[in-house]
Amino acid sequence: MKPTIPAISTTTTAPPSSTTITDILKTPKFVKFTAISLLSVSLLFLATHFSSSSPFSSFSFNYSSLPPQKPPQLSHSPPPPPPPAVRRTGIIDETGAMSDDFFIGESESNSTSGFTEFSESNEEGVKENTSDGEVRVRFEKFKVCEKSKVDYIPCLDNEEAIKLFNESEKGEKYERHCPGKDKLLDCVVPRPEGYQRPIPWPQSRDEVWFSNVPHTRLVEDKGGQNWISIKKDKFIFPGGGTQFIHGADQYLNQISQMVPEISFGHHIRVALDIGCGVASFGAFLLQRNVTTLSIAPKDVHENQIQFALERGVPAMVAVFATHRLLYPSQAFDMIHCSRCRINWTRDDGILLLEANRLLRAGGYFVWAAQPVYKHEEILQKQWKEMEDLTARICWELVKKEGYIAIWQKPLNNSCYLNRDTGVLPPLCDPGDNSDNVWYVDLRACITQLPANGYGSNVSTWPARLHNPPDRLQSIEMDAYISRKEIFRAESKYWNEIIDSYVRAFRWKDMKLRNVMDMRAGLGGCEPFDTYPRTYDLLHAAGLFSVEKKRCNMSTIMLEMDRMLRPGGRVYIRDSVSVMGELQEIATAMGWVPALHETGEGPHASWKILISEKRM
């Protein structure tokens, strides 16, 4: 289509001619000539904006000969190329609905060699302003703490706070008392002299290096009970306990024979072992497909949890005292106490009521203790008190045999509601949130079960791993109808991420055993109740971008270093905006960091910082 020129209105008539001016302007030759002229002028105009090295710089032109015109608004540099197209990686589609069709992608696979790509240059220890106006300190290198901190647990070794409770009989001195901001950890916790790379699982269940946990108190106190012994340069764990000196396997067989419905590995999947010693009960339940959390206080036998973790058994320091334990209601299918040194009936049964809160509806409480089988008057009195209390909280004594008694918690509230008027302990107030546990005092009341049966109607293992539990509907969160879809999509999302880690970073070659996933969404910013050097791998997704506004990132990183074993690794999956500072801190602590891309590619807003704590 030929260009047209608008007609110009005039009062003068054109002289008679065979070809008018208008016709000339419409000819193809004139149009082409005009276009070429304008293009030449534009090129010469652009040439003046280039450097003297431009091939057009030797040309000159008298712009005054041109009619005045407004120069075009040009950019001084070409725009960046558009990012390459990538597949969606989220669990929400473009409409905001949950989606099962998402892609994780491969993590950048340069794993072990990537650790050597970063120089270990040190930064000056000076303050500097960040782009958002905050002030942070860049460290040259963190100092090593004094030797007395070799087994330091910040919230359990606060000596000033502990002194305040030395006279108390309720155990407050064994609870959490975190240091103030001016006394937070600011150094790297030392390792014991002669520390060696831990013995891998499953060999570690039976033996660990003496030099890694060089404490002999338990050998002296419990050696005769088949707990632990020393053989050359190792601690040996025969598998016994105070109440099961012939071994945990035989003990577990007895429990199974007493109550076949317990069905380890099917109906019973998650257990809590209270006063665990060196955690042989939990260690031998693992081979029956039961995951057991072993807990004990840091008391006169203060290193029992350290031995458990060195063996590769899930464990943490915790105590039944005056606060709720840090686990939600109905968290455990079975709770076990073998000579755990807890007076369950004191203070109107407040400690057993806490165990009741933690126990799943229909779950079992296993008690192996002297009052069960001995006939001394004081022990028989303790048994009668226990028998009376358990009846009032509606536990059924399923079986009593030898030194073991096993109770079952009811499946619903019918027994609670049909008790006689005035029977104690009372039911908890309906407004009491039984899942609220952070520094919450114990309650001397019975936690009611959900009226709809949530918590008791779980699938058997392993189907339970993939079936969203009904109790999701009782958890406080924004979504309601889509909770099960969120559960499924979240499971698929993380399954693909872990699968990519295994493939790209060769996790199968790392012999990982103790792993912690640090989740910021529901967590705080206080130290964790575990011993130093207890985890092979720490994983943090989105932790620092969430916590940086209320916590110093170096404080969190030093706590991670405290928990991490020499030779261990840290995977931080987070925003690009925090990666620079995290790399600096990692280097200052002596880690070897390397930055990797996620499966979303080089333009993604998140990256993966992998660091190794070298031996």
Largest sheet: 7 strands, mixed
Low-confidence stretches: 1-22, 41-77, 82-124
Mean pLDDT: 82
- What topology, given as strand order, has the largest sheet? 8-7-6-9-10-12-11
User: What's the multimeric state?
Assistant: single chain
Tally the helices: what do you get? Answer: 16
Would you report the number of β strands? Answer: 17
Secondary structure class reads alpha/beta
**C-alpha Rg (nearest Å):** 35 Å
Please bin the fraction of helical residues. Answer: 25-40%
Head-to-tail CA distance between termini: 77 Å
The portion of residues forming beta strands comes to 15-25%
Molecular shape: globular
Give a description of the structure.
- It is a single chain.
- By secondary structure, the protein is of the alpha/beta class.
- The protein is built from 16 helices and 17 strands.
- It has helices at 21-25, 28-47, 159-163, 217-222, 248-258, 280-285, 304-311, 346-358, 370-373, 377-392, 414-417, 463-466, 483-505, 543-547, 553-563, 576-588; strands at 126-129, 135-138, 207-209, 229-231, 234-236, 270-274, 291-296, 315-317, 332-338, 359-368, 396-401, 404-408, 515-518, 535-541, 564-575, 592-597, 606-612.
- It has a 7-stranded mixed β-sheet, with helices on both faces.
- The protein is globular.
- The N and C termini lie far apart (77 Å).
Secondary-structure blueprint of this entry?
Elements (H helix, E strand, L loop, with lengths): L20 H5 L2 H20 L78 E4 L5 E4 L20 H5 L43 E3 L7 H6 L6 E3 L2 E3 L11 H11 L11 E5 L5 H6 L5 E6 L7 H8 L3 E3 L14 E7 L7 H13 E10 L1 H4 L3 H16 L3 E6 L2 E5 L5 H4 L45 H4 L16 H23 L9 E4 L16 E7 L1 H5 L5 H11 E12 H13 L3 E6 L8 E7 L3
Parallel strand pairs: 6-7, 6-9, 7-8, 9-10, 13-14, 14-15
Antiparallel strand pairs: 1-2, 3-5, 4-5, 10-12, 11-12, 15-17, 16-17
